[in-house]
Queue: 2 jobs
Job 1
Amino acid sequence: MTITLEQAQTIVRAALEHGTEQGFNPLTVAVLDPGGALVALGRQDGSGHLRPDIAVAKAWGVLGLGMTNRAIAARAADSPEFFTSVATLAGGRILSVPGGVFIRDGEGRLLGAVGVTGDLSLNDEAAALAGIAAAGLVAETGAED
Amino acid sequence: MTITLEQAQTIVRAALEHGTEQGFNPLTVAVLDPGGALVALGRQDGSGHLRPDIAVAKAWGVLGLGMTNRAIAARAADSPEFFTSVATLAGGRILSVPGGVFIRDGEGRLLGAVGVTGDLSLNDEAAALAGIAAAGLVAETGAED
Amino acid sequence: MTITLEQAQTIVRAALEHGTEQGFNPLTVAVLDPGGALVALGRQDGSGHLRPDIAVAKAWGVLGLGMTNRAIAARAADSPEFFTSVATLAGGRILSVPGGVFIRDGEGRLLGAVGVTGDLSLNDEAAALAGIAAAGLVAETGAED
Amino acid sequence: MTITLEQAQTIVRAALEHGTEQGFNPLTVAVLDPGGALVALGRQDGSGHLRPDIAVAKAWGVLGLGMTNRAIAARAADSPEFFTSVATLAGGRILSVPGGVFIRDGEGRLLGAVGVTGDLSLNDEAAALAGIAAAGLVAETGAED
């Protein structure tokens, strides 16, 4: 199972539109397959040149560890050394802040992850959720309801 | 001057459509700004997981050297050592085969570059040209007319 | 839009002169285009051999994130893990101390950034401001007035 | 012994002027001290974003091996494997083509090296020689008289 290009493009478009509607800073949105490879990416005009790498990292890290951002943050709080080593192993592609979100289908199967960066982390995450919803898919952030 | 997200998305969409219409293998298309940062990327279902890096490399290399693929190929034929060193300096992001194309506006100003990978190099390049034409912009490949 | 070589050379020269006039330690000054590539660099006699990399990093990081040093410092204080990962992603080319300054034209368009290192960070920043003023351009540091 | 900033800036300026006068492509010129650290760099408008790395590499390699470009080229012809390994060790900062030139004082003492890139290698080298001559210093290229 993996996300399709069409689904990924819908997520990118809808996440960016959410940011524009909400008046967020320019965003970059990356959608990755379960193996951590890019399927689609869009960077709004004015979003800095490192933002594609950060957007990829947000999604790559949750896939790489199989842990949500919040679970990664809890682990980093328990053991900063663990976080430092794993972030280095990953070439920096592990982030503990919100904005990397698992994408699942209606039966809970993993299709990939989306990473959003450019504004406050919770705003980045909100844009990711808007994108996933627009594609008719299910998001998992690790936030408690 | 830099390409806009909207122009970049048009190029990705039209280049992928060209590949589908022509019956090419699944393609990956990357559009970069003049500094070599991603603006938009799309990978068709079935295109391998290294393809995003290759698509980026095709565009990154022509921008980094300010030379078309064909000029890079000629330089590599003259001096394989030059190519080896420069490809290493670039982290591999220099390719001498067709499929990395400069994007210019109607007055010749550099807006970025597009890289396409997945089929024969000349087919990749044809998809890039179709994408740039769809955005109303001007392509430079280094091929003689 | 990008800074010209002539503007960049004026910034380097004037920033270094400012340091000499003020009795600062030997400085290194780097001017980068908006994509993060060097346009001009000068290292004063006695400035250590890592200083060129630090000067580049100060400018590269603000461009890469689209955030001033002070905004980066605030983000790092909120989330040290974010800083760790992003600095690794950037190969260390993100610094949170003053001395990396955006360069804009009179209409606010981004032309690049200057990085200065060698003395106290606020002195480095003062040299950057002197350089940008000498070129008739506009500086953005993130400091409150 | 090491080159001064003033000498290095003279070399950069005169090498770039030579290129302009001769109608060369846009050039990038880097001057390094004997330890391989940048002292001064200038990149002309339109020179690609990888050119600073290439200019540095041309100078860094001759200093790192203590061999001229031509001696490196001869060694690479004898043993391509040697070249490949050393270029990788150096992160690509070894080039066998002309354009990296030792800078010596009137008594033959090593002060550093200059690297020039952007046009044909022999033109790059001619610009380096013009720069070194303008600073009243002595060039060593490895070319036979």
Job 2
Amino acid sequence: PHAPRTISSKAHSAPYPDRTHSCGSLSPDNAGQRVILAGWILPERKMKTIGKSFYHLKDSYGTTQLLVDHAQGDSYNTLLQVPVESTVLIEGVVELRPIDARKLGNTGAVDVLVDRVTLLNAATPDMPFLPSNPHNLPNEELRARYRYLDLRRSALSENIKKRSQVAHIVRNVLHGLDFTEVETPALLRSSPEGAREFLVPARNPASSDPTQGSQRQPVFYALSQSPQQPKQLLICSGGVDRYFQIAKCFRDEDGRKDRQPEFTQIDLEMAFVSWGKNQPPSPSSADETNVWRIGGYQVRQVVEKLVRKIWKEVQGIELPETFRVMTYYEAMTRFGSDKPDTRFGLEILNLSDLLPHVSDVSSASSDVILECIVVRKSGDSAFIKASHTSGGDASTEHITLTDATRKTWLLESKAASHVYPDMNSEDQTIVNKALKLKAGDDIWLSYRPRVPTGGSTALGKARLQIFERAQSRGDYIVTKDPHFLWITEFPLFTRDDADKEHLAHGRWSSSHHPFTAPMWQDIDALYRGEAEKVRGQHYDLVLNGVEIGGGSVRIHDSAMQDLIFTHILKLDDTEKFPFNQLLHALQCGAPPHGGIALGFDRIMAILCNTSSIRDVIAFPKSASGTDLLFKSPASVSRQVLEEYGIQPQQ
Amino acid sequence: PHAPRTISSKAHSAPYPDRTHSCGSLSPDNAGQRVILAGWILPERKMKTIGKSFYHLKDSYGTTQLLVDHAQGDSYNTLLQVPVESTVLIEGVVELRPIDARKLGNTGAVDVLVDRVTLLNAATPDMPFLPSNPHNLPNEELRARYRYLDLRRSALSENIKKRSQVAHIVRNVLHGLDFTEVETPALLRSSPEGAREFLVPARNPASSDPTQGSQRQPVFYALSQSPQQPKQLLICSGGVDRYFQIAKCFRDEDGRKDRQPEFTQIDLEMAFVSWGKNQPPSPSSADETNVWRIGGYQVRQVVEKLVRKIWKEVQGIELPETFRVMTYYEAMTRFGSDKPDTRFGLEILNLSDLLPHVSDVSSASSDVILECIVVRKSGDSAFIKASHTSGGDASTEHITLTDATRKTWLLESKAASHVYPDMNSEDQTIVNKALKLKAGDDIWLSYRPRVPTGGSTALGKARLQIFERAQSRGDYIVTKDPHFLWITEFPLFTRDDADKEHLAHGRWSSSHHPFTAPMWQDIDALYRGEAEKVRGQHYDLVLNGVEIGGGSVRIHDSAMQDLIFTHILKLDDTEKFPFNQLLHALQCGAPPHGGIALGFDRIMAILCNTSSIRDVIAFPKSASGTDLLFKSPASVSRQVLEEYGIQPQQ
């Protein structure tokens, strides 16, 4: 109806008037007004009795119902011919709906009586699927290929908008706290091992050197796995006191579920972090729970402020002023996990503590403890059926007590006999009494090294399995209150991380990264070389059993950093090379500093109540790293590779 | 003085108290207060007469003067032994300075009388350079190696902070205008040509397929050169109506001055952009200047609002409500540049317009025009000396008029004779009269094709050369008012872009990118295949002769997009392959849309009044793409390369 369409062109490419409103903005206040809307047209509902048809017009702000009189020949005919999901521009007058036809929401009380329709762009009648029909969606792979249609679904686009909202809250809070956002390089240096990092071939400037002849060596950047070194160097510079970045990071981890080759961190670093106003807690506090005994007090404050603000604005939930704190030791002992889900009970009980006389005589038991979970028929009724039907794994024993087995279960247990071969029926009685066991109770039994290592124990896994089964059975409805938790005082070094072993080759590894400062109480042990005794000033932030962030106070002493590289981790010069600038920066008046990185994708998945981070990323890759939309990765011509001095392997 | 330092550790790693203030926050209001500060210690100034010493303590917020009484043995002795640039924690009492010793700024009116000093981290006495001494800085290369020291200089750290401030203004403005910030992938698909893009080798999932044997083909992602396709697909989805992103982009352009392999764009895209409220301007407006005749009206509005807000907040400058608009044709004709610097005159004059009778008879002249710049001895006195001493290049003729040459300069000109071999002295008189020439005036003369192509003409370059010379001579002081300017109505296709020719191989190239919509008035010409006649709905934003952004209304008609790929650009199927998903998205009800990308680094360089974008990037690379701090790019072991199925070229 407006400027004439050019004949040879299929879509409307000539001028057309501006929208006056979005499809989500009309309300009864607009009744009687003439409006222009643009959006996607959804299927017709014909009302033959009144000679009219209803259409929904949808844009990213909402949906408005259109009313077209069949007598309005031009408009109705245009709409009749328009395939669903085409974009149209309509003009008409806003009408109040009859009271009984009003629906909830802004636009639910009005229709637009259309008198003019311009087809802006016809959709093919051959759409791979109709995003407006959420009850008939194809599988995830097909939707990934046509992500531009999947994103038209409100459920997905709401996630993308919420992500933008949260990112802006983060920035507002941090700018308000005097943070400076600094972009650090994505193109960094490849480290000698090259594990988990993506390489980026670069043209070698030296290769144009004729004296090099055919010996030119290809060179590479590596994509930043995290801004760890740049942000530490930035804080060492003193150029900014408080740094943050919502940073894109890259890791080449194939085969990990729900990981993306590129992901986003909320990354912070602060100079002059300390132990806070009540510093440091007295040594006696070591026995107390819920005490922050390490440095990085200011990081904790900032993160709690930030998280509280997000949950308030997005979820309408008021979180506590400070989050609960638990040491790694306590978390492993009570929950069998370094990211415990504290929304439910089923805590782990230490049986060795009940059998001191036994452990005194057996040397085998001194560095091993026996522990159990009791699922009580009466007290844990929501879990008991899930427990009955849970399998556990080879390292746990699962016993359902009967009146008959009550007196012998411990004596007959393989796990208990392994740890305490000399047990007798008196011990059985002591344990039964202490645990207040009854017939019908379920017992999960296992043993483990006394000093906890790694991320979880056998009973920690069994505990989660029972919980998940109880939930999926519908027996247990978990609280909606988010359980935030700080885990602190991790061991600084580990030999138990399979992911790190292929680089460590039997040497110590850093539990998190080699820049984490030891607890100051453990510095002497560090200098004595007793790596296993050193706890780090590391903190993980855990939400409902999911680690959503981790950070630490960093080492600012170059001698200490060098000692760890050289004498604990036993790095050779090639391995140390990528850290040389950091060591030197520490020598040039580096301030004490610390920071944290929060997993933005994972936080968004929790806020959007979805189990997959692909639902909160506009254009994600599949679990195998394949991009089904853009069809990448893809092969490249030999000629292009030659510019970088590389070729396919032969 | 606080918790004892561990002997074996060089830096202070034990608890210490919080700062009460930053070094930039004290004022006379704090007089008499006991404070704790932390920062970098600068050289001593000893006042023997009063038995005291002054030190400056600096942190990223500012500098506070410390006063230490030599009688305060412990504190003074500690400070005496502390190397410059060490980090220290001091305690003391704020004192008002004597009136005659007060300086400007927050902290200039107070000292802190120090009574306690804790050395947090000693700097090496062997610093590569002292950032606190800006008058004695080493060369840029050395400073790049020790960027963590260079960033300690206030000049540099202020730039980094201003960058953060501007990014936050951008986000606040755009969120306020209902934009959604969406992260698009950095890892995209490599296109068949692979020009200018960085490759990222990926593990080939197919390579674990045993049936492939040794024929496994290496595969690659490509780093995003810009979010162009993802953002268009996002808008085509309808999931968001207005997208933005402060986006990291990657281009492998070696040898370009002041370019970085990774750089940052402020990237926008909007659905349903149109011609605005007064759409479209009447055809007669084609002769008027300062008229926006293309679509994308909303993009223009948003960008002007954004830029006005930045200049207001950061520079305190109130920019006009709307920026000047100039067509490409006008810009090339009057200024010889598609990014004209309009802060000064020296406009180009068309001599062919003065000689219609000549051009009527000469067929050679019909597609060539003769033009000149006149630098007037009296009117352009600031430029005349610069003009006298400017060289020009082979394609310009430079004549300084004398009374003698006044009557023959045109007749004797090689350029004029080339275009108008039949000229006579009457023509000379006509031109002299029209130009009001006087002895002492400088004339720059050149000819060019009547239809302008490319980014600049010979006289456009000469004009800039004269301007720059006049500035560096100190003859001309350019206005501080920023001159913002939109350039519109560019030719949609070009054969004159050397950068594109290596892919085009003699075919037409898109002047900007193949997604730009033609002006609707030129669609018929497009469908007739008259590529040279088609102007695009492209707009560049120019500031003081620097292009700071560019964008366009995009094609939303898949048939038109396909026509351009296939019949104008003559892409083969392999070349078209990376665009297939966009073509399909256009078929699925894509809305009309348009957007822009602003060069954030360049805008920041202008706002920070520096000529190098390296001064506004925390960790830049050198012009050759080398990172002197992180020592990248670097070589990688064969073993790592094998995981990606590649090896060094043999």
